[in-house]
């Protein structure tokens, strides 16, 4: 029998196998409508046959990104989406047998990769009010800890971390020779960043993505921001051409047109405020932590709501974790999208 890495062989993976193309997608925190059509068409006109025939070059995008972020190009490594950033984290810095401290529940891919690379999860759980104690987090960090993951904000629950909390966690991790990852996938919806810590500490990495607010999840482009030493090690594990030419062109044009980001931000804000107003008016219990998603405690069982909305070509997210078993998560978008969701949800969930 051929050899299979036991960490892979014993890994449990799930995936959504049905096509999502013809649905209003409010289940994965993508922009339900995408980039403005006129901007999309403008970018596509710049993609020529000879451009596609050439191996992709990342230097221009890295330079523009460094200027946008007010850091140096040597502080950035582009990745094939945030999933690739997480994989690189564990492939380069994941010491088998060491602990990974992170909140739970959270983004599932961290658990997938920590198991894949033979690390042990040391979860810090939320209470029934969706709060997590920074003291409990600090208590989990010890000499057996290899990596600490902070998602700011965390999907699907939890409040954003405060600066003094993050600083305490970074310092405790550094005392124990552990890295700290701060995942800022939802930065544009909650524009508080801890990027300045990369200049103060040598054990901090920031993850960002173009998939959420910047609306190109299908292109698969994210990036890691860290000190030069960390980025040097990360790049050793990268594939030769991790980012495709389409992703690079869209990323470059978005960075060249910051008004697009402002317009996308305002469009999501107005839609989210519409949804939150409806939830308040109808006395729904909900949880919003400044991402592009809202948790709603439905009157009917979440799986029934999911199935009924799916019949209306609307997808939402439900959970099996006990703390979330009575909640649905809805991605926020424009007023038009939120109004469509609400009109169907209100009828489906009426008592």
What does this 3D model show about the protein?
The structure is a single chain. The chain has 351 residues and is of the alpha/beta class. The protein is built from 14 helices and 13 strands. The strands form three sheets. It has a seven-stranded mixed sheet with strand order 2-8-7-6-5-3-4, with helices on both faces. A hairpin with an 8-residue loop joins strand 12 (317-318) and strand 13. Helix 4 runs parallel beside helix 11 (245-256), helix 5 (81-93) runs parallel beside helix 6 and helix 12 runs parallel beside helix 14. It is globular, with a radius of gyration of 21 Å. The chain starts with 5 loop residues before the first helix and ends with a helix. GO terms for molecular function: transaminase activity. Its cofactor is pyridoxal 5'-phosphate. Residues 55-338 form the Aminotransferase class I/classII large domain. Pfam families: Aminotran_1_2 (PF00155). Keywords: Aminotransferase, Pyridoxal phosphate, Transferase.
